[in-house]
Amino acid sequence: MIRKSYAKVNLFLHILKKRADGYHNLFSLMHKINLFDYIEIKKNRGGIKLSSNVDSINNKNNLSYLSASEFFRISGIKPQVDITIEKHIPIGAGLGGGSSNAAYTLLMLNEMFDHVLSKSSLKKISDSLGSDISFFLLNKPAIAQGRGDILTSVNCDLTKYRLFLVVPSIKISTKYVYSRLLLTKRRPINRIISVADFKSCDFGYIKKFFYNDLESVVLKEFAIVSDVKLLLMTRFPYTLMSGSGSSVFSIISKDEGVYQKEIEDRLSAKRVFFRTLDFVD
Questions:
Q1: Is 281 a residue of the active site?
Q2: CA 198 to CA 254: how far, in whole Å?
Q3: Quick check: 105 and 68 in contact, CB under 8 A?
Q4: 132, 149, 213, 229: which is the annotated catalytic residue?
């Protein structure tokens, strides 16, 4: 069994407050993009064996391994799979690659073993392992609330737009970024804090809230991310960091596509990954 494991971007990310448990309440719009890893799962004679083309994730702390371990523990089925992950989503870039791998591993295992676990059981596993995993289980554009685990699916129409993605060659720790966030230092932007206030998933509406509170930390402390954002904004006004970085993306219309070659030429002098992508519903 082989599946694509998609990346995501945050089309806005507003941090509301720090919680007693150390996490932060947020309000964010998350959408999949056409950048993905491949996951292959085969049955074996016993145990969970994980391998990848990226050596640093070949261990038992890998979210895909942990999700498989929890799946077998809760289902009561004997562990008996080989999991192979072919990575293409940059790591530590705010694109949810590890969370995506965990979610698709759960979905694939549940399919492989005759849907032994309910959707609610899969969500409990995902919530226990990480905040973004449940989004990929939902498999639709969604508003994320709480620490990212309370999801409301939305119907988005972004067919008129593409996404120009740039990923600097650095990894940024989400935990570090949140530890440096000072909520009192945020810009006084137009915020949206409840699903009831969210009126449309059309980009003409979304751009009113097109802001990421975590940029206040990352752009100040990681010069390459700031440089990339400033460069993109010379041609693409709707440019934002995704999640806790390091990736930066621009929403571009067909008319703005004429500037891509110029931007790509300027980016080629930097150590960055860049690609033009479509949104995936």
A1: no
A2: 26
A3: yes
A4: 132
Per the structure block, which two tokens stand in for 44? 């074996």
**Consecutive 10-residue averages of pLDDT for the chain (281 residues):** 98 91 91 98 97 96 98 98 98 96 98 98 96 93 93 92 95 93 65 71 88 95 96 96 96 86 91 93 86
Distance CA 192, CA 249 (A): 21
Closest CA to 246 of 232, 226, 230, 269: 226
Q: Are 38 and 6 in contact (CB under 8 A)?
A: no
Task: Out of 8, 32, 87, 123, pick the active-site residue.
Answer: 8
Q: Do residues 148 and 132 lie in contact, with contact meaning Cβ atoms separated by under 8 Å?
A: yes
> Minimal CA–CA distance to 83: which of 35, 54, 44, 121?
44
* Radius of gyration of the chain measured on its C-alpha atoms: 19
